[in-house]
Amino acid sequence: MTSSHSHLAETDPAVAEAIAGEERRQEENLEMIASENHVSEAVMEAQGSVMTNKYAEGYPGERYYGGCQHMDTVENLAIDRAKELFGADHVNVQPHSGTQANMGVYFATLEPGDKIMSLDLNHGGHLSHGHHVNFSGQFYEVEQYGVDPETGYIDYDEVAARAAEFDPHMIVSGSSAYPREFDWERLGAIADDVGAYHLSDIAHITGLVAAGVHASPVDHADFVTGSTHKTIRAGRGGMILTTEEHADAVDKAIFPGGQGGPLMHNIAGKAVGFGEALEPDFVDYAERVVANAKTLVDVFTDAGIQPVSGGTDKHLLLLDLRESHPDLTGEDAEDALDDVGVTVNKNTVPGETRSPFVTSGIRIGTPALTTRGMGPDAMTTVGELIVERLNNPDDPDVASEVREEVDRLCAEFPVYE
Ligand code: DSN
Q1: Are 265 and 282 in contact (CB under 8 A)?
Q2: Ligand 1 pocket residue status of 231, Cβ below 6 Å
Q3: Cα–Cα distance, 307 to 97 (Å, whole number)
Q4: Residue 410 Cα to ligand 1 middle (Å)
Q5: Residue with the nearest Cα to atom 5 of ligand 1?
Q6: β-pair partners for 307
Q7: If both were cysteines, with which of 39, 55, 329, 413 could 43 make a disulfide (CB 3.0 to 4.6 Å apart)?
Q8: Per the annotation, does 127 bind a ligand?
Q9: Are residues 312 and 258 in the same domain?
Q10: Residue 98 Cβ contacting ligand 1 at under 6 Å
Q11: How far is the CA of 273 from the centre of ligand 1 (A)?
């Protein structure tokens, strides 16, 4: 357990017990949801601090409340560290999430009914890139590009041709489940050719970009958005990077346009997490995240399970189960792995025929296990355990053996010492 929560245990045992249960769950299971990670105790201390008590509407030096001197210090630290990490001219660290960050950019640049072009959710895109159940799909006219069904890679010639035809106001790049690097330069050039803004959403790869392990879109996009709790371990939240040209519009779109008081305790967490990412060992962490994902690709490929696009360039892989396990849905696989302490999520795959609640694939990520200190040997074992379970989803003996190994790995690589 990371802390005693002594006050909480006394005043609200029900919540204290739920938090203790979650601490145990994280320690005793292998967290392989690609968008999750474990922050440091320092980040948690900042987030669980008196910073939660303070209103600080406005921006550093221009607040609508008195007593904001320490808010200004922390927000400026978060901004300055993010500028250094990403080489951006202007940073807004107030978005409550990656989706709020995207909303801020849309509100800063588009009118209702304007046209956006983005990666299809079934091909790895995100709800906030124009899906019909999200405000972005309801306020704007949306055209989506996808991956080549044969290769699993984005076909940039096709994107260029579709953009020329659709004439969007904005091209959105970035993804939740596309395992390959984006060609930001090409996407920026396509946007320029059709006179569109380029918004690059790096939510999943914020840490990889900060570490230089994935190419940066900062020089090829008008706006870069991201969340701060995935491959970068700065606590739950969002951010926007942009140029001086768009700084004022972005800031106004976030506050007062779309949000009220900033979550200053989360901004304190962002400042601490960005500071940690500036340390030299963060590059090593990011490199190990990618190396671990490639190790998993090798294990799954050897076992005849196909990763979409044949592999990965980053922290995640998307397993297409249709050929290797035609009777096992993504939902079945998620449940079978959950039973043995391996947490993943079901995910649609390109050419999906099942519903998003069922799916034909699972998405697997390495950021959290890498934070626990796992390297190639442990990752090979984890991959083999997943294969064993997927091949025998109804065998209780296999389930017990896999669970035992999961327990051993969790004990060997604790999250919080
Ligand atoms: N829900 C996140 C993910 O899992 O990819 C993105 O917002």
Answers
A1: no
A2: no
A3: 29
A4: 24
A5: 176
A6: 319
A7: 39
A8: yes
A9: no
A10: yes
A11: 19
* Residues 151 and 192 both lie in one domain: yes
Ligand 1 pocket residue status of 136, Cβ below 6 Å? no
Distance 235 CA to ligand 1 centre (A): 14
Flag whether 214 is marked binding. Answer: no
| Residue nearest atom 6 in ligand 1 by C-alpha distance | 176
Query: Is residue 185 one of the residues assigned to a domain?
Result: yes
Measured in angstroms, how far is the CA atom of residue 367 from the centroid of ligand 1?
Answer: 14
273 lines ligand 1 (CB under 6 A): no
pTM: 0.96
Q: How far is CA 32 from CA 141, 336, 342, in A?
A: 35, 14, 7
Query: Cα(117) to centroid of ligand 1, in Å?
Result: 19
CA distance 367 to 312: 14
115 forms beta bridges with: 141
Binding site membership of 174 for ligand 1 (Cβ less than 6 Å):
no
- Alpha-carbon gap, residue 417 to 415, rounded angstroms: 6
Closest residue to atom 2 of ligand 1, CA basis: 35
Ligand 1 atom at shortest distance from the alpha carbon of 97: 7
Do 224 and 292 sit in the same domain of this protein?
no
Q: Is the dihedral of CA 372, 378, 379, 385 positive or negative?
A: negative
Rounded Cα distance between 358 and 64, Å, is 48
Distance (angstroms) between ligand 1 centre and the Cα of 222 equals 23
Does residue 141 sit in the same domain as residue 271? yes
The last residue of a domain, from among 243, 277, 311: 277
Determine if residue 41 is labeled as part of a ligand binding site.
no
- Please report, in tens digits, the pLDDT of each residue of the chain (417 residues total): 455 678 999 999 999 999 999 999 999 999 999 999 999 999 999 999 999 999 999 999 999 999 999 999 999 999 999 999 999 999 999 999 999 999 999 999 999 999 999 999 989 999 999 999 999 999 999 999 999 988 999 999 999 999 999 999 999 999 999 999 999 999 999 999 999 999 999 999 999 999 999 999 999 999 999 999 999 999 999 999 999 999 999 999 999 999 999 999 999 999 999 999 999 999 999 999 999 999 999 999 999 999 999 999 999 999 999 999 999 999 999 999 999 999 999 999 998 999 999 999 999 999 999 999 999 999 999 999 999 999 999 999 999 999 999 999 999 999 998
Question: Could you tell me the sign of the dihedral formed by the alpha carbons of 236, 406, 412, 278, in that order?
Answer: negative
Given 3-state DSSP classes, what are the helix, strand and coil percentages for the chain, each rounded to the nearest 5?
Answer: 50, 15, 35
CATH number at residue 239: 3.40.640.10
Give me the domain span that covers residue 391: 288-412
Looking at the structure of the chain, the number of domains it has is 2
